[in-house]
Fold this protein.
Amino acid sequence: MGRQAILVAHGSPGDPVPQEAAMQALAVRVGMWRPGWRIRGATLAMPGALEAALAAMDAPLIYPFFMAEGWFTKVNLPRRLAAVGCGDVRQLAPFGTDPALVDLMVAAAGGAGPVLIAAHGSKVSATSSRTTYEMVAAMIARGFGPVRAGFVEEAPFLEDLAREMGGGVCLPFFALRAGHVVGDVPEALEAAGFDGVLCPPIGEDIGVAQLIAAALERVI
């Protein structure tokens, strides 16, 4: 059946349709960079979506459209794959850990002053913040800065850091425009009196489709 891949995101359990549509649209854009491939998008939140995509393909690559390794990529997604007899398909590293992402982050942040990376964080695992700090270090290593990271679910909290910085560019380190991006991030910036620019989440960057296409090609 040729080269195949499924791009899998978390999605929004409370309102799964918009994020499911976003993943399907992303799959189309990735496919434009990989003619001859069959590429589909699905979210874990949309009932039956991942299973339907798997049923339509033969041992596809699984590309996790997540910002870090964690419970969803290491436990939940493999469990869902195994439940339908696809436990042996190849799962790639998450989107947020791709070394090429730093180029998109630097370009998206531009040169309009200090950069505040808004990220998820976690109360129970250090993996999420570690991936974010690795991105901060990579941007600084490129001579870009100052760059700092604030989190929704752990210290330093986004609101506190935004208040301290005052302004600059806030770049959300998120894959999709969902709950945290449309609610928690702008609310934290408003509460902090942040006088700066709020960028779209990096997962919406125009270069993301090409980045994913390159990641798929590297494993073939």
